[in-house]
Amino acid sequence: MEASRACALLATVLVAAVLACLCAEGAEGEVVFLPLDERFTTRDAFVNMALSHTPYTLRSPPLAILPHIREAADIPALQKWVDHALLSPHRRHPAGEADEREMILSSEMYLYGGLIGSRISNWTQAEVEGRLAKLVAYKQQLGDGVKIYASAVIMRIPAYNSGFEDQWYWAYYGRDLFQFSYFMDKYDTLRQPADLATAQSYRSKVPPAVVEDWLWRRSRNFNVTKAIIEQQFLWKKQHNQRLFEKLYVTQDDNAEYGFNIAEAEKLKALVRQYGLEEDIYIYPGADEVGLTMLAQSSVRKEGKSPRIKLVFRDPATINLIPNYEGQPMIQTLEDQIKAAGGSLTNDTEAASVILLVNNFSHQPQTEAPHQPLNRSIAEYAVFDAYLAAAMRNPRVVVGFADNRYSNGADVVLIRYMESQHSSASHIPMSKFAYAGWNTDGNTLGTVISSSLLMALFPAKREESTWFNAQRILEDCSYQAQWRQGLVAYTALAGDDPNLLSRDLPFYEQLSYKVLAEDFRVITRVYGLPWTLDAIYYPWRRAFEIGFRSS
């Protein structure tokens, strides 16, 4: 792709991501998008994937009415925006045929004003369900004129003390509440008296009013999600069609046991009772779910499900349970493929996507900053033959699912990928998708979605390199490496990595200097025209980062 065309695309991506009201024209239908919250990883990553991977028109609310950290979205303004986006006259093609509208939305945004709002807001269940009724009314009014894909997150239970994303008391009692939840559910599952005693011991460390408040919030959110599933069943029974084309219930920050695991099992049982297994997916993930919904909606619109061939670095360990999740890696992988609209095949020649899974070999999964770097790229020789097969077939896309470590990339895998580009096989970035960030579910959902969209829209593959170059920058350069350097620097300076706002311009410029050089290396290796203009911290802490390019 010519540099001028590439830079024009990048400018489009940037403008779309920062305009007060995003509205980018495409040629083959319209997507209305309500993100989980305002972060780069949940909003702008979706925008960038939609614009670089698909031909669709995209509309998303202005940042001014979205949440800002612990301040919830302006819900009346958000509802007004959705009214206009869905109920205004369709743009029509010259032949007079209207575009089909698809709505991809987070129920946390629409019902609670964002992800954090779903955890800390004081709205009653009745108030929240009143907003759900408004959402159902859109389908009543528009019928087949709108296809709705919705997500809901089972309220998380982090295993540490921090009140940044949760109710204030999590900063003081978070670990105790996690342990109470873990051992109570373990007791309910295994009926071992020692687990009940342990659960009661941890509960006794927390003020009763705090426990009561937390359980009330869990109950409210669970009942609202249950009501969404019931609405799906009733609508299908009454109208013989789906209210939601697909509904995604994701599990964020969970373990093998816990109230959130019990809630997921109850919701799965309800889905089976109503016969909605093909409508509703319940699995580990959260921040990446918008990308998954985009892939699923594109599969439906294009009328074909790309087939995926799985290749594991370590086939013997695919049943290990990753950090922050409560089920085996292989189960989450299969759940994510189904949720994104893909299908599995054992036939390499029949596959549209070859997914190379850099899975972990030991439990617990190692955190990326602690990985050994003195390893050989020969560890990945199992992938060589599949990369060669992909290069012989122009239609095939390769996906690198880098889930060997949690919270960042496998640095040696990145070296291997670079060596494959520099070798005689010369794998260009327009041939592959990549992800290796945060949790196993985040990584798998992202790379599967990107791979499927690249398979569906081969004409967009050159443009998709911006998204995947950015993933390597964030997952390898930032999460696996520089973020720890930044945290160490804040300690030396007497600052707090969770409160960069004390000197935010300095820390943004410091990180930019490190990452801009890394991005130049990435683009030079793969022969790409992209440049990095700035970085920013959307929640003013070191954990999340955002990028600006032009």
Kindly list the characteristics that best describe this protein.
12% strand, Rossmann fold, 7-stranded mixed β-sheet, 550 residues, 5-stranded parallel β-sheet, disordered N terminus
Descriptive account of the structure:
The chain has 550 residues and is an alpha/beta fold. The protein folds into three domains: 30-156 and 219-302, Rossmann fold (3-Layer(aba) Sandwich), CATH 3.40.50; 162-206; 307-549, no CATH class. It is 49% helix and 12% strand. A seven-stranded mixed beta sheet has the order 1-3-2-4-5-6-7, sandwiched between helices. The chain has a five-stranded parallel beta sheet with strand order 9-8-10-11-12. Mean pLDDT is 94; it is low at 1-21 and 92-96.
Summarize the structure.
By secondary structure, the protein is an alpha/beta fold. The chain has helices at residues 3-18, 40-53, 75-87, 107-112, 115-120, 125-142, 170-190, 193-203, 208-239, 259-274, 289-302, 329-340, 384-392, 411-422, 440-456, 461-492, 504-526, and strands spanning 22-24, 30-34, 57-60, 101-106, 146-154, 246-251, 280-284, 307-312, 343-344, 353-357, 397-401, 432-435, 534-536, 546-548.
Give the number of helices: 17
> Which outline best applies?
globular
Number of strands: 14
Strand order of the largest sheet: 1-3-2-4-5-6-7
Biggest pleated sheet: 7 strands, mixed
End-to-end gap: 16 Å
Number of domains: 3
Oligomeric status: single chain
- Helicity level: 40-55%
The parts where pLDDT drops under 50 for at least 5 residues are: 1-21, 92-96
Q: What is the radius of gyration computed over CA atoms, rounded to a whole number of angstroms?
A: 23 Å
| Beta-strand content bin | 5-15%
SS-derived structural category: alpha/beta
Q: What's the pLDDT, averaged over the residues?
A: 94
